[in-house]
Every structure is written in structure tokens, then in C-alpha cells.
Amino acid sequence: MSIQIFILGxxxxxxxxxxxxxxxxxxxxxxxxxxxTEGTIYYNFEVLxxxxxxxKVETIQSENRPDKTTYGITEKGRxxxxxxxxxxxxxxxxxxSLYATLVHLDKVDNQxxxxxxxxxxxxLDKKLEYIxxxxxxxxxxxxxxxxxxxxxxxxxxxxxxxxxLWLSKLLDHVQSRVLKS
Length: 181
What we know:
The chain is mostly helical. Helices cover 65% and strands 7% of the residues. It contains 7 helices and 2 strands, in the order H-H-H-E-E-H-H-H-H. The chain has a two-stranded antiparallel ribbon. Helix 6 packs antiparallel against helix 7.
């Protein structure tokens, strides 16, 4: 889904060859361990084309070279892109799952997005409350098992806190976009 969001987002800004999109994605992924192959890109272009979310704009044929096809987004694709971005926030699993959407916040209603982010923060806050209710001294285990459980609890707690901090920054950013519009 995130590759398709990235492709549709790029095509919403102009017409591109699949290879151009691969280079753009690669630039953003240089900071991560993720790798995108040309096969993955072309496969996703075919899926989007079959769904009517993108169209072939122009095909350039040259001797001794494969055809070079430029693609553009359809109106159906623009709607799908917006809905997909909302869906990613509605189905939040972790901060990394939001990365593909971040460069396309201009494609959605930022006020609606702000509500979705607030909902995520509220759900994470409830997870922290749950962890707080289950204090370490109440864990019915001993030795290494108890130590392991305490370490996992500590990691979960701090990871959620960190995600909430990051989401609060994202919320501030999105809300500032609302004020500018």
C-alpha cells in the first residue's frame, strides 16, 4: 500500500516514468534499510493501471531500447490516494507505517487528519494507562522470566511514549497547515 501511495502521490504532481518514481523512492529510502526493486515498482504500476487509478500518457519508442511509458494519475486515483492516506492513519500500527503519507499531506483535508491523529494519541494513551495498571510488583513470575517481562513492559511503555511525542509533533505540524489554509 505504501508504495502505491508514494506512486500516486508523485503522479498527482506530474507525469512520470516508473524508473523516475523508483529513483524518487530510492532517494527517500536511502536513510532506511528498505529496498525497492524495479520489479516491485513495475508490478505496482500495473496494479494501479488495472484499477484505473493511473493512465498511460505517452509511450516513446526508440531503436534498440525498450518502450518508455509515461504515466499520469486519474481522478479516480486522486480520490483513492486521499482515501488511502486516511486509511493508513485509521489503521495505525506504528509510526513507520505513516512514512509514505508524510510527503503527501497536501493531498488531504488536514483538519480531518488532525482528528485522526488525535484519535491515535488517545488510543496510545489508553495503552499507557493499561500498562500503568499492571505494575511490575504484581507480575506473578520469578527470576529470569520476571526480569524479561519487566524489560518488555519497560520497552513497550517507552516506545508508546516516544510514538505519542512524535505524533504530537505531527499533530502540531498538521494543525499549523490548517491555520495557513
